[in-house]
Amino acid sequence: MKPVVVTGPPRADAGVVAALGRQGVATIHEAMGRVGLLGDTLRPVWPGAQAAGTAVTALCLPGDNLTVHLAVEQTQPGDLLVVTTTSPSVDGYIGELFTTALAARGVVGLVTTTGIRDVADITRAKFPAWSRAVNAQGTVKATAGEVNRPIAIGGMVIHPGDAVIADDDGVVCVPRRRTDEVLAACEQRTERESKARGAYAHGELSLDVNNLRGLVEQLGVEYVSWEDDAKQARDDG
Amino acid sequence: MKPVVVTGPPRADAGVVAALGRQGVATIHEAMGRVGLLGDTLRPVWPGAQAAGTAVTALCLPGDNLTVHLAVEQTQPGDLLVVTTTSPSVDGYIGELFTTALAARGVVGLVTTTGIRDVADITRAKFPAWSRAVNAQGTVKATAGEVNRPIAIGGMVIHPGDAVIADDDGVVCVPRRRTDEVLAACEQRTERESKARGAYAHGELSLDVNNLRGLVEQLGVEYVSWEDDAKQARDDG
Amino acid sequence: MKPVVVTGPPRADAGVVAALGRQGVATIHEAMGRVGLLGDTLRPVWPGAQAAGTAVTALCLPGDNLTVHLAVEQTQPGDLLVVTTTSPSVDGYIGELFTTALAARGVVGLVTTTGIRDVADITRAKFPAWSRAVNAQGTVKATAGEVNRPIAIGGMVIHPGDAVIADDDGVVCVPRRRTDEVLAACEQRTERESKARGAYAHGELSLDVNNLRGLVEQLGVEYVSWEDDAKQARDDG
Amino acid sequence: MKPVVVTGPPRADAGVVAALGRQGVATIHEAMGRVGLLGDTLRPVWPGAQAAGTAVTALCLPGDNLTVHLAVEQTQPGDLLVVTTTSPSVDGYIGELFTTALAARGVVGLVTTTGIRDVADITRAKFPAWSRAVNAQGTVKATAGEVNRPIAIGGMVIHPGDAVIADDDGVVCVPRRRTDEVLAACEQRTERESKARGAYAHGELSLDVNNLRGLVEQLGVEYVSWEDDAKQARDDG
Amino acid sequence: MKPVVVTGPPRADAGVVAALGRQGVATIHEAMGRVGLLGDTLRPVWPGAQAAGTAVTALCLPGDNLTVHLAVEQTQPGDLLVVTTTSPSVDGYIGELFTTALAARGVVGLVTTTGIRDVADITRAKFPAWSRAVNAQGTVKATAGEVNRPIAIGGMVIHPGDAVIADDDGVVCVPRRRTDEVLAACEQRTERESKARGAYAHGELSLDVNNLRGLVEQLGVEYVSWEDDAKQARDDG
Amino acid sequence: MKPVVVTGPPRADAGVVAALGRQGVATIHEAMGRVGLLGDTLRPVWPGAQAAGTAVTALCLPGDNLTVHLAVEQTQPGDLLVVTTTSPSVDGYIGELFTTALAARGVVGLVTTTGIRDVADITRAKFPAWSRAVNAQGTVKATAGEVNRPIAIGGMVIHPGDAVIADDDGVVCVPRRRTDEVLAACEQRTERESKARGAYAHGELSLDVNNLRGLVEQLGVEYVSWEDDAKQARDDG
What we know:
The structure is a homohexamer.
Chain A: E1 4-7, H1 14-23, H2 25-31, E2 43-44, E3 51-60, H3 66-73, E4 79-85, E5 92-94, H4 96-104, E6 109-116, H5 119-125, E7 129-134, E8 146-147, E9 151-153, E10 156-158, E11 163-167, E12 170-174, H6 179-201, H7 206-209, H8 213-218, E13 222-225, H9 226-236
Parallel strand pairs in A: 1-8, 3-4, 4-6, 5-6, 6-7
Antiparallel strand pairs in A: 2-7, 3-8, 3-11, 9-10, 11-12
């Protein structure tokens, strides 16, 4: 890997990204066909954090945050910084000085597979941030990686300029050219879910609302009374 | 495993279950003789969540929540849904639509070894829920497992109708026919602890309150001054 | 290991310890030369917890908290109890009765590599506590370990009387005789960071504030436009 | 939990247990309907270990192997000792002295969720043993748990006298009264697999041997050439 | 995700892939600029396994191996099957029947982020296989994923037709169009290492062979005698 | 942390270290009073590896093995290199070139909390090595840590010159000035165990050989027949 900074990637449309942010991570993930999540290990630094922006990507070396410094320069308002490492590291790559700088540049959030520190300050400032760990462990500035090259987190590839949406449920990435299509699918899904919610609140069963009775029968699900089942269990020992 | 739904299991007495809920998980676990916990990996979705109900159990296949749909139909007011899988999965089996349905049916809480999603909504609605993870990852509805058969979580077997109590300290299960006995033991323990608390607040030592001095002597605990100990350490290198 | 209680270790100066507490864990860790952390697995029981005190150390056997009882007696106002085990255990060694006793003795906090229970009560009482897990699992009182001998957590050795500072970012230990020197280094660092913060808030880049441009050039970081990079990637397949 | 030793449980038939042993863990698990495994964390101490016996169960306290001493006395030829703990522990509960004693009593194997030590000696003696870890860490003998009460490992409940079969693929438990039925199902499965193996060795496809073409069509699986797919991907960005 | 099977992807040159296989995983990883590894969790089923082939990729759903059946049909001699899942699963997706079928088709190896079973048989047959776990747990065949679409494992993206090389050190992927360039870099590196090996065997120091003395000086490494260092440590307490 | 290399530490006596090596890790750990282990995560690269030497310690930065290069120069015949990092890293710090160099210098083994690579070559050369992981991931040479300063692994502090013994059961450290005392304790223990082994081989019970009957009675262990216990369980539900 030669150190490189890619400049000026095209970004997903800001309005569409904002609209995706209002849909939330779980809905987008479902609307994309149940893909797009960046795994189950990224958690918000403070509960209730929400962000939707266009990805600036940084691939750092373990225990070395110099590449984050390079990446900050490439951000513009509406971006969301996404950081990972060439081999696993939960060191505290990013603290309050960085989030202060990012906020001053109009960056809307931060997602990292590393650790984060100064979390009390970041929480107080309500800067939206997601990480794999909280960790005071500092890093060096001795080696450089890549900025704005595609990176892969949790099986999902993130390209610079993709839409990244994050909330309490995790983080999802929508490829730049699919944002319109995914937003439309979200809106359809939200409408369907709204109807289901009303039905459930009135006591209807999801087996009926989702027309699952046929499948249940086809799968041969057997209904048996507790008395009969307990008797059988006693006989089987 | 053939798919089966067991109907109409007897439930532990609602009043006793509620009384157990007021005792809390740690006290019940101690009163049962230090057993009954469902391991150390189940955490509340929101801090302060508390629930006590009668178990409806669901054993799902990995990545497939159809069995949860089957289980919901078997719940009645005062129940608490307990979900696990045939092999480990932290996918997001359950979201806000499910908890809305459960709340509408009078179900008092949810415990699952899987992931949960829509946690911002569930937190807002203050529906008590415990899980191994928060995860937006969706599931399919293609295979059916078992409802209201005994399941094992963290070394504890949960039968349908057992009392399940959950709070910030974790989740405990009290077998249906032992609830009276356990409640009585809790009350004795609570009284003893109340006295100890008063003593500690006035500066008494737990070594004295618990009569541990004899044991300490019997175990040959040696008291040595820091100066002597530091000197010995220097000599030992 | 023979059971032993070391009495009367010298403590770090209370005023210096308090001043270190105002600096925070991340700053102290950096000021010490990026060492001193007790690993990345110790988390506060409640967000916002902060404590700075002089260490009383306890080395317990797995599943057995008798040594904690021995350690409490050795505490004095301004101390912070640090607990670990001879082999890994996340059982709930410490609950609200212990923290009530510690608070009554003027102990300022608790750090343990084990589990903690009664966390709702401890949170309500705002007693500062850090642990590897929350766990209702109870322990026995059958074997004794060591009190006020050096222990090692996360690669850092803690001697009795050392300064231990803990906050949302984790836990750090400052050797007793180095507290003055570390505090001075913290103050210098805080001043530098304050200036950087102001610069960042006005849009300056950390590459400039930290004079990193030369290093970036020396490392051969290449800047390339997105169009050129995307074309090269297509050619490489 | 009061310390108790249950004596003289009925055992599964030795001949049927031996026949199950020849079927192997994966086949038995499938024949039981894909249940019965003791999780995915138990590994053989030496590759190629195989054992099939009737369970003597031991539930120990963490870091304390006294209950194993109690359990050894309850073993008889053909038994297999199954050990777990009330809370997780990977201490080295069992070493070569124990396996020497077990071998002398005709015990055919050992399965434990704890650690094992003296593994070079155990390997040399070819005593079949499965554990969660290898660990030299010793234990105390201060508290007693339960022998020959049901225990749960990895979601499966093991009763004393059940058939336990272990090999390189893991460990499976067959309830005592179901051994005949499971053995019959194994034999049917083995026959089917033998036919499939022959077909595969001659180049037939599992899609055909298992009649999966219809399901594939029903699920709407689309076949697309690499050229068309690559073009679409380029268009999507 | 719609179920799709991509047919006929171009493959990396068989001769170059074989030559890469002779270089080994660590050398290739270094020659690529320290990238290309599929993480640190994939281990060979039997020690000494080695394989180099062209990737056929399969993305399965959790607990469901139907997509593996679809993928087998797409393999040709010289291929290596690479399997992962949409959410983490260590179920035993693949056993000896599959490896028998793969061997019959001339497939040279198997890499999967899931579990593998029948490992005694696979070891006996010396079929090269890497997995995250050994696990007897069976799977269903109810849902279909993707075959021969790009997948990401451990931060590396694998395209169908890429060269995949695996040995005791792990698994590395070389993009199809970069195989010549990487092979050439490997050969240069191997030559350099051969010289270094000779020097080391004769007692030369890597500090000299790699010309590191200048860097060491520049970093300000201080040399101090043990006596002086021990004295300082005593003074610091 | 300032980079430092401490030169010429005193070593434990070579003859005593060799004698400790013949006792094995588990025996030494017990003889030291059940302390001294470097945790349960260090595993031999090849089964059957054994080593006993005097520690040269290296504390590296994450993803950077420059400090290992510095440490090699400090080794002399009979030493054993012990490597750890300032924050957790499983990168492949050490490969066959290093072990070739170490062997040429008469170093008897290697213990590292990082990853190791080239394990096929190291296994072929039968160089004794223990690590937390096998990992092809390479490292940089950009920052320096400490050589021959005390380090802590798994709660145990290792000083340069201490005796380190490693085998299939793990790794143990004996402080330099305690080697004679520990060896004597090992010899006593080995004699006792030899007698016990003979008794067990003849069918005696450990309850009797270790005089545990009195303790069992004192703990109130109850013996109950399976029939009575099963009846009680049915009544309890």
